[in-house]
């Protein structure tokens, strides 16, 4: 028999993945708990056993998505050998891989996070600060950085 914590984690994952897919299609405001339940093929009682409301599920999704993103970037940067340019390239590659691996979750984390005003925005801003810190990595403070995106290309 499966451990109850494993079952609970699976239910939460199914529900938040369904929420991500619905938000990617409809946007946060237009997504209802009913939409999530149809997508997840779960009962309303199951949803409310896991989350107080749609916002709580959304916050859980944002936390999971940003934690996954930052973990990938941190691992890629740590494994990068070479100067800070290699470090930055590895970190940005990890961001792109994360987006490609789960577009609906990436969409929620990058686009829809502000839908849940204070909470979602705070999670997104915290993740961006940590991402910048990871990507800067071992770049010297006086490293010549391009002034514009065109200079970078």
Average pLDDT metric: 89
Q: Helix tally?
A: 8
Q: What is the number of E strands?
A: 0
| Pattern of helices and strands | HHHHHHHH
* Fraction in beta strands: under 5%
- Major sheet details: none
Q: First CA to last CA: what distance?
A: 55 Å
Q: What is the approximate shape?
A: elongated
Summing up helix and strand content along with how strands pair, one would put the structural category as mainly alpha
Binned, the helix content reads over 70%
* Residue windows where pLDDT falls under 50 for at least 5 positions: none
- Rg result: 18 Å
Quaternary organisation of the protein chains: single chain
How is this structure best described in words?
By secondary structure, the protein is mainly alpha-helical. The protein contains eight helices and no strands. The protein has helices at residues 4-26, 33-40, 44-50, 54-79, 84-101, 103-112, 117-136, 149-152. Helix 1 (4-26) packs across helix 6 (103-112). The longest helix is centred in the middle third of the chain and has 26 residues, at 54-79. The radius of gyration is 18 Å and the shape is elongated. The model has no long low-confidence stretch (mean pLDDT 89).
């Amino acid at each position: 028999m499966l451990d109850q914590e494993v079952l609970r984690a699976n239910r939460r994952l199914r529900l938040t993945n369904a929420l991500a897919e619905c938000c990617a299609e409809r946007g946060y405001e237009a997504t209802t708990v009913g939409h999530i339940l149809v997508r997840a093929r779960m009962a309303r009682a199951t949803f409310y056993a896991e989350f107080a409301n749609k916002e709580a599920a959304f916050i859980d999704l944002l936390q999971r998505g940003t934690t996954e993103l930052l973990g990938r970037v941190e691992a890629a940067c740590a494994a990068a050998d070479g100067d800070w340019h290699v470090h930055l390239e590895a970190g940005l590659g990890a961001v792109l891989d994360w987006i490609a691996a789960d577009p609906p979750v990436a969409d929620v984390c990058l686009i829809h996070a502000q839908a849940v005003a204070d909470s979602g925005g705070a999670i997104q801003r915290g993740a961006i600060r940590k991402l910048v810190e990871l990507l800067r990595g071992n770049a010297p403070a006086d490293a010549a950085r391009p002034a514009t995106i065109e200079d970078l290309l």
